[in-house]
Amino acid sequence: MRVKLLRDCRGGFVRQTLLLGLRRHGPRRFTEEDHSPSYPGTAYFPRGARNRSTPMKSIVRNFILGIFAIAACVNALGADDKWLEKEALGKIKLEQKAADVTGLIGKPDSKGKEAEWDAIGEWVQEWRFKSHGLTLNMASRSKGGAKTVLTITATAPSKLATARGIHIGSTIAEVTKAYGKVHDKEQSEPGKTFIAGSVYGGVIFTFTNGKVSQVFIGAAAE
Asked: Which of 25, 30, 115, 120 can pair with 34 through a Cys bridge, CB separation 3.0 to 4.6 Å?
């Protein structure tokens, strides 16, 4: 339900709700007969002309519904962020400092070249830990600067599990049970990938022969 609300927020559900009244009825010009003879400049509706007040009532009603929708979206966004903040692979988390990472699993076997990612405005370097089956994208605000974990990718022989107990070799059923409430069904490919959260921030499980062959944590798209 939370993911659906989140998707509705990003898809413009609130905007559509707020504008529904305007789209249905459109703006209406007042003519001379619409003005009260006693109070010039005010709208005047003859007795029995109830339908003339309908557009305003509809707009007000949809505006109120929009306020409730905004509140629901804020709540959904907050809930979505909270579960992802707690997500990890073993003890490795997003935004973790480089020193903390090496303190947990040692120095990387190799590092890639630093490259500037325009989409996020940071310098990114790939750190590879072959014996752990891990690849981390480490980011810094400037070239050669202090780095933190941007994304986490695990493949065999990794034995590290996510915060909900999923690891390389887990079944589709186990993933669904653990992450079903935050499953993005629209972006996932049945039997191939399972996206928890979204591609803009979440956990992506890749399957081979019905079992997890790769775990990705972070943003796969900007």
From this structure: 30
The average pLDDT across 54-79 equals: 55
Neighbouring C-beta atoms of residue 184, cutoff 10 Å:
21
**Measured between alpha carbons, how far is 41 from 39 in angstroms, rounded to an integer?**
6
Query: pLDDT-derived band of residue 19, with 50, 70 and 90 as boundaries?
Result: very low
Rg (CA), the chain: 26
Name the pTM for this structure: 0.66
Contacts of 212 (CB under 8 A, 6+ apart): 166, 167, 168, 169, 170, 171, 175, 205, 206
What average pLDDT does the segment 100-107 reach?
Answer: 97
Of 109, 120, 116, nearest to 145 (Cα)? Answer: 116
Given a cut of 70, is residue 85 above it in pLDDT?
yes
Exposed / middle / buried, residue 65 (Cβ in 10 Å: 0-12, 13-18, 19+) = middle
The answer to whether residues 159 and 165 touch, using CB atoms and an 8 Å cutoff, is no
Q: From CA 68, how far away is CA 74, in angstroms rounded?
A: 10
On whether the CB atoms of residues 211 and 170 are closer than 8 A, the answer is yes
H helix runs in 106-171, sequence order: none
Which helix or strand (DSSP H or E) is residue 8 part of? Answer: helix 2-10
Burial class (CB in 10 A: 0-12, 13-18, 19+), 101: buried
